[in-house]
Amino acid sequence: MKNRMKFVLILFSSCLVEQAVAQDSTEDLAKQLANPVAALISVPFQLNYDQDIGPVDEGERWTMNVQPVIPFSLNEDWNLISRTIMPLVDQSRIFPGAGSQAGLGDIQQSLLFSPVRPTEGGWIWGAGAVFLLPTATDELLGTEKWALGPSVVALHQSGPWTVGGLANHITSVAGASDRSDINATYVQPFVSYTLPSAWTFSLQTETTYDWESEQWSVPVSVVATRVSTLGSQLFSAGVGLRYWAESMDGAAEGLGVRFVFTLLFPR
Q1: Taking a C-beta distance cutoff of 8 angstroms, is the pair 66, 42 a contact?
Q2: Cα-flanking dihedrals φ and ψ of residue 250, to 5°?
Q3: Which of 15, 118, 221, 238 is least surrounded by CB atoms within 10 angstroms?
């Protein structure tokens, strides 16, 4: 009887330890997801809904951004982080008589060099370049321009907090002469808080200033996500709202919705 009790206690204790280790692991993954240059392979699927588009506010748009993040180890000191944004768009009535369009938008590709270890002050950073490729399958889904420019990111993680920002500037260098030139600055400040249960609550803006039209686009997003497992597959899922505090002429206004599902492949 005593031996059986010992076996049950050992089994129960081992289950508790395994659960605690799993929880620590998912919490750490949640913190890595909050870091744009973490050495973590991930494939986010980000679905956004926007409304009140166009001069008469009748347009609406669904955008599925497929955003694979792939780190490459260059040596013991440096990583190269590849971040891709491939938008799949379904939109309608973005201006009177426009009808509807569905297909691939312009792909954005970023390459960031990042130190393996944070600085002495705990800062994590990366710098590199961003490229805009005219891959849109419909002229109303893209710019028909090739563009490129510098990109940087910096953040600090302390306990459950992650605070930082990402910025880039892209300028068109080739493409259709009858389309507007691209000259835009993008700034994405963000702050997030991760719980031991692997829930992360984040607040960010995705601000763009168009130097050609001298207009701002300022969507503010609040998103809650949680890292979980399905069988042996790690993933993160969540939902949030965003509000267009400032919009360019004819762009989305008011409230929007964001759904996020991310496949995780820790190395």
Answers
A1: no
A2: 80, 0
A3: 15
* Dihedral over Cα of 37, 40, 41, 46: its sign: negative
State which amino acid sits at residue 192: S
Nearest 5°: the CA angle 44, 30, 261 is 25
The domain of 50 spans 2-265
Total count of domains within the chain: 1
Q: What is the pLDDT of residues 30-88, one digit of tens each?
A: 999 999 999 999 999 999 999 999 999 999 999 999 999 999 999 999 999 999 999 99
- Phi/psi of residue 141, nearest 5 degrees: -105, -5
| 193 Cβ neighbours under 8 A, 6+ residues apart | 160, 161, 162, 200, 201, 202
CATH of the domain at 192: 2.40.160.40
